[in-house]
């Protein structure tokens, strides 16, 4: 059984190499927040320390290598924080390998720097490391003193309960090593309650494992087994290889104690596979010793001695005192079974000497038992009897009723706390679901209000346009009568009448189509909502498409209404001077988003002081239509170039694109009422009336408009307006 070193190493908060109750090291932390003032060398030191932290569980030599590089570089650039953390890393490795003098020097220097920097977290880590080291050295008063310092400083940091849990585990390890199992349970359960309250999954699993080890030492095997299973259930979801190896080994030891040798070997082989993969020397030494004891119980003494001797060699090489004592006592056990009492006495004596140094009751008891057996075999009955009484006394201390009662009491408290936590969690989930439903309902109500307002707005626009269309029809009929009455110009007037009728029919058709489409879409959408054919998410996804149709219809109606008003006899053209650049920039900005969506390059080349005299609203509509057409018939990465300049007493404005262009036949049909609209490069639709409106508006401003185009090269629309009235 490998209790001392495994329980002691748990206090290494930077490592996951503890065999009992410590989580495997987290993956490398995110690099410290960078800013322009942080020198590159300090970032390198921080990363070296992170690497050192990461490698401890699998390769302490790598930890020492990276930690030492961090120390050397920090000294070179006078980076105190990096130096202190690097010394903390190398100090861990040195005392883990038995170099306590070097470790003390490194940790003391780190403490001096952390005090200077007022880095309380660093101080907590150093004092915790000292506590672990002194526990390994069986200097329990010094271990408790340092851990109490760590607990006191951590309390000053505020609500750092994760570190508090780790410190309680470390303190529990000290009292376990001293054999004061009752006090060790106090600290383990304190840590466990905090871990459960804060959902610290890995610490909770490790503490269940620690408590199981205490119960295992008390030989309360069923309860110990239950705690190991709970730890395995929790940590099995975390892929924490170190912890899983430890728990499998602990279960194997229980089965060994209950003489289920095949079951014990099965679990120990699982643990052996994990510790080999992790290059965990402590775990490897412990597992080999346990496997040796299993094969000794099966009377396969050759294999037993081979396993335990290998365990002893690893422990001696890495100065693992507990594992050395455990292996020596194991060899004494094997030789006693073979009645080779001389060798048994030799190994039992060496193990007993180390157990005194460790001060662990379990190791002392096992050493006393093997000494009693070997002395009895050598015929030294009186000495054998003394060690037998010592063994019985130590076992009675391990099976303290106080510890068993305390464990039972804590388990009742823990069960109650778990149920209370579960009820709070369920209530929290119910409240969260209710809030989500309320939010969803509010969102649905807002969407319905928006849709209803949009429907009312569209209906109002439709009614207004219908009335205006009726007025237009009356006006057209009146014009028809005038044309019929003008005998001298019959042919010309007849042609105009025919054009007007054609235009009227086209306008009616366009209005019927363009107003029907969004209304039909809304009608269909409300129908789907009424019979629950669509989900809330689908409704949200459909809204942008509906709004886009409404926006297109609104823009077209604005243009149409302006043009219709321009046809009225009392239409006020509001001729005045305006900035051509400002007008074009405003319209370009309005179409910027659509151009960017097709990745079209937009160039504007207009002098700031260029002014013209005309109706700015008419020119704005013309520019908007020409830019919209250019975007519509341009592909991705095409270019639209808007330019303007003065020529004599005219302002010339050009809208040129590198889009699909037009054939001569298409070009000849422009600016006429029978133009058929083509779909754009993204299948954009249109009415085909825009250019007709543009021509009419430009001519009303005493200007001209024309176009040039070439297929696959692009199109240039040009219009002119006066500089002055």
Automatic annotation (TrEMBL):
Q: What is its EC number?
A: 2.7.13.3
A molecular function annotated in GO for this UniProt entry is: kinase activity
Q: Does the keyword tRNA processing apply?
A: no
Enumerate the catalysed reactions: ATP + protein L-histidine = ADP + protein N-phospho-L-histidine
TPR repeat ranges per the UniProt record: 165-198, 205-238, 285-318
A Pfam family the protein falls into: HATPase_c
Q: Where is the Histidine kinase domain?
A: 510-725
Enumerate the Gene3D superfamilies for this protein.
Answer: 1.10.287.130, Histidine kinase-like ATPase, C-terminal domain, Tetratricopeptide repeat domain
SMART domains for this protein:
HATPase_c (SM00387), HisKA (SM00388), TPR (SM00028)
Annotated signal sequence is: 1-18
Say which domain of life the source belongs to.
Bacteria
User: Is the keyword Signal in the record?
Assistant: yes
Question: What transmembrane ranges does the database entry give?
Answer: 443-463
Alphabetical UniProt keywords: Kinase, Membrane, Phosphoprotein, Signal, TPR repeat, Transferase, Transmembrane, Transmembrane helix, Two-component regulatory system
Q: What is this protein called?
A: histidine kinase
UniProt organism field: Mucilaginibacter jinjuensis
């Amino acid at each position: 059984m490998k209790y001392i070193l495994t329980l002691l190493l748990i206090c290494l908060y930077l490592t996951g190499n503890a065999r009992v109750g410590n989580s495997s090291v987290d993956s490398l932390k995110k690099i410290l927040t960078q800013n322009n003032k942080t020198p590159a060398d300090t970032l390198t030191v921080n990363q070296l320390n992170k690497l050192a932290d990461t490698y401890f569980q699998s390769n302490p030599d790598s930890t020492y290598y990276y930690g030492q590089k961090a120390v050397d570089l920090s000294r070179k650039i006078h980076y105190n924080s990096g130096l202190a953390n690097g010394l903390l890393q190398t100090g861990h490795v040195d005392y883990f390998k038995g170099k306590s003098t070097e470790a003390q020097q490194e940790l003391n220097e780190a403490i001096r720097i952390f005090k200077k920097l007022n880095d309380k977290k660093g101080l907590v880590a150093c004092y915790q490391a000292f506590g672990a080291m002194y526990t390994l050295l069986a200097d329990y008063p010094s271990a408790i003193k340092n851990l109490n310092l760590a607990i006191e400083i951590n309390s000053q940091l505020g609500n750092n309960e994760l570190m508090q849990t780790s410190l309680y585990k470390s303190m529990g390890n000290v009292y376990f090593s001293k054999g004061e199992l009752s006090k060790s349970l106090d600290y383990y359960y304190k840590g466990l309650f905090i871990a459960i309250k804060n959902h610290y999954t890995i610490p909770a699993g490790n503490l269940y494992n620690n408590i199981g080890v205490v119960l295992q030492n008390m030989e309360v095997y069923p309860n110990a087994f239950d705690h190991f299973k709970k730890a395995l259930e929790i940590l099995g979801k975390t892929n924490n290889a170190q912890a899983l190896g430890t728990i499998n080994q602990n279960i194997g030891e229980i089965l060994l104690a209950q003489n289920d040798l095949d079951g014990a070997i099965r679990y120990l082989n699982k643990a052996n596979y994990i510790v080999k993969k992790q290059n965990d020397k402590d775990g490897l030494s412990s597992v080999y010793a346990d496997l040796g004891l299993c094969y000794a119980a099966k009377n396969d003494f050759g294999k037993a001695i081979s396993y335990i001797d290998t365990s002893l060699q690893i422990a001696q090489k890495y100065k693992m005192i507990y594992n050395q004592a455990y292996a020596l006592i194991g060899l004494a056990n094997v030789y006693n079974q073979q009645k080779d009492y001389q060798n048994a006495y030799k190994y039992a004596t060496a193990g007993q000497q180390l157990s005194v140094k460790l001060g662990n009751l379990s190791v002392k008891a096992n050493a006393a038992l093997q000494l009693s057996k070997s002395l009895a075999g050598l015929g030294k009955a009186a000495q054998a009897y003394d060690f037998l009484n010592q063994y019985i006394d130590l076992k009675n201390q391990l099976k303290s009723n106080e510890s068993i009662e305390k464990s039972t009491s804590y388990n009742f408290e823990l069960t109650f706390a778990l149920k209370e936590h579960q009820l709070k969690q369920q209530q929290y989930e119910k409240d969260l679901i209710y809030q989500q439903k309320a939010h969803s309902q509010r969102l649905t109500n807002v969407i319905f209000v928006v849709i209803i307002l949009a429907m009312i707005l569209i209906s109002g626009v439709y009614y207004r346009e219908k009335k205006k269309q009726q007025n237009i029809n009356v006006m057209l009929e009146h014009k028809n009568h005038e044309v019929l009455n003008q005998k001298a110009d019959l042919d010309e007037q007849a042609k105009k009448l025919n054009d007007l009728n054609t235009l009227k029919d086209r306008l009616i058709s366009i209005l019927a189509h363009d107003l029907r489409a969004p209304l039909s879409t809304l009608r269909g959408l409300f129908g789907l909502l009424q019979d629950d054919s669509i989900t809330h998410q689908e409704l949200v996804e459909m809204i942008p498409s509906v709004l886009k149709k409404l926006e297109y219809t609104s823009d077209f109606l604005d243009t149409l209404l302006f043009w219709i008003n321009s046809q009225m006899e009392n239409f006020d053209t509001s001729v005045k001077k305006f900035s051509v650049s400002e007008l074009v920039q405003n319209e370009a900005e309005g179409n910027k988003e659509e151009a960017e969506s097709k990745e079209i390059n937009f160039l504007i080349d207009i002098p700031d002081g260029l002014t013209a005299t005309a109706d700015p609203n008419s020119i704005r509509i013309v520019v908007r239509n020409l830019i919209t057409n250019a975007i519509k018939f341009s592909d991705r990465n095409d270019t639209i170039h808007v330019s303007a300049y003065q020529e004599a007493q005219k302002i010339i404005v050009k809208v040129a694109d590198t889009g699909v262009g037009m054939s001569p036949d298409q070009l000849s049909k422009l600016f006429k009422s029978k133009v058929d609209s083509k779909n754009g490069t993204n299948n954009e639709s249109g009415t085909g009336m825009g250019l007709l409106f543009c021509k009419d508006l430009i001519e009303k401003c005493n200007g001209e408009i024309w176009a040039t185009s070439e297929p696959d090269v692009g199109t240039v629309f040009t219009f002119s307006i006066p500089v002055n009235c």
